[in-house]
Amino acid sequence: MSHRSATIQDVARVARVSTATVSRALSNPDLVADGTREAVFEAVQQTGYRVNQAARNLRMRRAAAVLILVPNLGKPFYSKILAGVSEGFANTDYAVLIADTESRPLQDGELAGYFIDGRIDGVISLDGGVSPQALEQCRRQGLGERIVFLCEWVEGADFPVVCVDNAEGARLAIRHLHALGHRAIAHVTGPEGNVLTAARREGMTSERARLDLPAPEDWIIRGDFSVESGHAAARKILAMSDRPTAVFCAADTVAFGLISGLQAGGLSVPADISVVGFDDIDMSQYYIPALTTISQDRHRLGTRAAERLLERLGNPLASQGSTVNDVIGVQLVVRDSTAPPPT
Amino acid sequence: MSHRSATIQDVARVARVSTATVSRALSNPDLVADGTREAVFEAVQQTGYRVNQAARNLRMRRAAAVLILVPNLGKPFYSKILAGVSEGFANTDYAVLIADTESRPLQDGELAGYFIDGRIDGVISLDGGVSPQALEQCRRQGLGERIVFLCEWVEGADFPVVCVDNAEGARLAIRHLHALGHRAIAHVTGPEGNVLTAARREGMTSERARLDLPAPEDWIIRGDFSVESGHAAARKILAMSDRPTAVFCAADTVAFGLISGLQAGGLSVPADISVVGFDDIDMSQYYIPALTTISQDRHRLGTRAAERLLERLGNPLASQGSTVNDVIGVQLVVRDSTAPPPT
DNA sequence: GCAGTCAATGTAATCCTTTGCATTGTCGTC
DNA sequence: GACGACAATGCAAAGGATTACATTGACTGC
Q: Could you tell me which of B136, B145, B71, B66 has the C-alpha nearest to residue B102?
């Protein structure tokens, strides 16, 4: 019951071997003889020894930790992704650090700094807003192999990305509305400058063009993925003279705000106007009306990103230079917020 | 552009002082002369030195990290709390580790193990389901001061708790319904064995008794905080001969499922039946009808817990033995899901 | 002019593992 | 019977910071 916890020295003493042998017995069991190995295990039990991470990290020049950059932990969209990521690292000895880039944006050189001072071995960024300079700095330090993007990415920076096919999701949404008979389809976007915003808008407009549907300028309404922005969009739509019969929203949360605002304004969803979301968050199937949306497998996105990073950390030489793009499929989930347009 | 990053030795050489002086200049600037200090800072700039965390942790016998135990990262309820916690540690040098106890439950001795092998300095547990043995083990190791509970807690274990006044929240809900004229009030609980479930149910039943309201057994419906359980509860209520005119749900998510199920069964909320939730998650004000609920300041809960843990880590002697209970107030937020009972 | 004080700095031990290299002993082979 | 190969283990040097203790000078007060 000594206050100080057991060290490898203690184990070595009890097992009557050297510390080197203890170390080997634990991390590379085949290198030691059967009897010795057992003696060591026995001694470990007896002393309650656990390897000191700091010492190991110091010696091995690694951090045994990865950092997840999340734009805003407060958004329900991320929670399942994080659960996936954290599960992806569950059987490894990597600790998962989480940083909210909204509540505290990364300082200049902070990212590279975390690597240099041995706090982390790798990064999964859900934030496409990481500054290109920060990334360039990391790459110069030879840390390029240790960064993976998830969901979002940085245009022009050559890092591996795990994401869904956003444009395809948008196309699915438009096609669904078109099949129901809609021709007047509006879009509430995400925040300006966001890669998802761009991809979804692009998919939306290209499909609308392909189907030869009208595309007045004011049918593209600027939002920012928030419920509030959906609510604001509703007011704009209510005020339009030439009102669309359907709206495709860049996120489910936007759709909720939109529907709430439309109903408050006297329009019924889907009787008067159809709404499609994007993401299929948990709430969507229980919203009233249950939301028609584009589903992405968030849990899988998380585990996949974890796998990618693990690969790259395990074998820094593999797939060098080439960017492996993991694109995960999306699915249209039809529920109650879409219907044929009013006649 | 050497590949190896600068060490304190390099800085010492450049500044023409000893490593001890460099260390002091950085962590305890008053101890060195002005000129020396500047020379050191200059050398740090020049070499791009950053202190190696592993080495520092080894020497100082600390981990510079705290662990947050989250029952289920996938639940939107936690995201804002986590944002608060992470903000609470933002200006410290503590890294924030997050573990999902549902996707990977803690093994026996794992919690104490994290302390012993120097991975963490403290724990904030949002999970009241941590095994009492694990906690007892931590306490025996003298780690009792390093654990703080948040939102949930373990009955009988004497650790500091930051939480809201759950019973009071329940009472507020019942009083509100009573004031509207309701006498027949049911309750959908959280999962059995959960401390929040117990506290909220207790507040609900005691207030109902105080107001002399009827309390048939089947008006307490077992749920588990999930949307699905709310949906299931709706079926039970629809099947009742003696139907309540109002339902208080142990969580907003439950209320969503309930309302969705009730409407599907032909009952209108709040015209036919009123519903009150608990938590006031982001979605609640945009649900249709906007949800009347008990609001808790989740962000503040997070930052407060962080503060508590920091205090205890900084000064292990302070408030020793005595459990400081931080109870944060709750507020009734009246929206559109409650109305006088049908006449 | 000398003992004592104090500020500023240096020396070297310490934190605990991992691992390159050296050593020992066994066994098979020519 | 000598030698090489090889398995098993030990010795001791990293790895990079912090800090107790020692040292040096300058300065105070008598």
A: B71
Give residue for tokens 């050489």: B13
CA of B21 to C1' of D22 (A): 15
pLDDT tens-digit map of A104-160: 888 888 899 999 989 999 999 999 999 999 999 999 888 888 999 999 999 988 899
CB atoms within 10 A of CB A117: 18
Residue A315 has what pLDDT? 55
The minimal CB distance from B104 to the residues A51, A79, A87 is found for A87
| DSSP assignment string, B82-131 | HHHHHHHTTTSS-EEEEEETTTSPPPTTHHHHHHHTTS-SEEEE--TTS-
Count other C-beta atoms under 10 Å from residue B342's C-beta: 12
| Rg (chain A; Cα; Å) | 26
Neighbours of B315 (CB within 10 A): 11
Q: Is the separation of the CB atoms in B335 and B289 below 8 Å?
A: yes
Across A155-176, b (16+ Cβ under 10 Å) vs e yields eebebbbbbbbbbbbbbbbbeb
User: Across the A/B interface, how many CB contacts are shorter than 8 Å?
Assistant: 165
- Would the CB atoms of B82 and A65 count as touching at under 8 Å? no
One-letter amino acid identity for A57? N
Helix, strand or coil, per DSSP, at residue B193: coil
Strands (E) located in A106-265: 122-125, 147-150, 161-164, 185-188, 220-221, 246-249
Q: Between the CA of residue B207 and those of A134, A304, B200, B329, what are the distances in Å?
A: 57, 49, 11, 18
Say if residue A320 is exposed, middle or buried (CB neighbours under 10 Å; 0-12, 13-18, 19+). exposed
Ordered DSSP codes for A73-84:
TTSHHHHHHHHH
Residues whose CB is less than 8 angstroms from the CB of residue A156 and which lie 6 or more positions away in sequence, other chains included: A132
Mean of pLDDT values over B229-233: 96
Distance, in Å, from the CA atom of A286 to the CA atom of A289, rounded to the nearest integer, reads 8
- List bases in chain C with any atom under 7 Å of a protein Cβ: 7-12, 14-20
Smallest CA–CA distance from B106 into chain A, residue: A90
- Per-residue model confidence (pLDDT) at position A141: 86
What are the tens digits of pLDDT across the range B10-32?
A: 999 999 999 999 999 999 999 99
Burial class of A251 by CB neighbour count within 10 A (0 to 12, 13 to 18, 19+):
buried
Instruction: Write out the two tokens for A125.
Output: 């960024």
pLDDT category, A338, cuts 50, 70, 90?
very high
**DSSP per-residue letters across B247-259:** EEESSHHHHHHHH
Q: Is the peptide bond before A289 cis (omega within 30 degrees of 0)?
A: yes
Q: Is B258 on the interface with A (CB under 8 A)?
A: no
Q: Which of A260, A257, A250, A282 is nearest to A78 (CA)?
A: A282
- Residue pair B37/A47 in contact (Cβ under 8 Å)? The answer is no
Residue B340: is the preceding peptide bond cis (ω within 30°)? no
Q: How far is CA B162 from the centre of its chain?
A: 8
Measured CA to CA in angstroms, residue B69 lies from A221, B76, B193 at distances of 40, 15, 18
Strand pairing class (A65-70; A95-100)? parallel
Nearest nucleotide (C1') to alpha carbon of B58:
C15
For residues A195-216, give the mean pLDDT. Answer: 97
Residues 6 or more apart whose Cβ sits within 8 Å of residue A4: none
Confidence of residue A288 (pLDDT cuts 50, 70, 90): confident
The model's confidence at residue B316, banded by pLDDT at 50, 70 and 90, is very low
- Residue holding tokens 């709390």? B81
Question: 0.85 cut: is pTM over it?
Answer: yes
Q: How many helices (H) and strands (E) does chain A have?
A: 12, 12
Distance CA B150, CA B122 (A): 13
Would you call B19 exposed, middle or buried from its count of C-beta atoms within 10 A (0-12, 13-18, 19+)?
middle
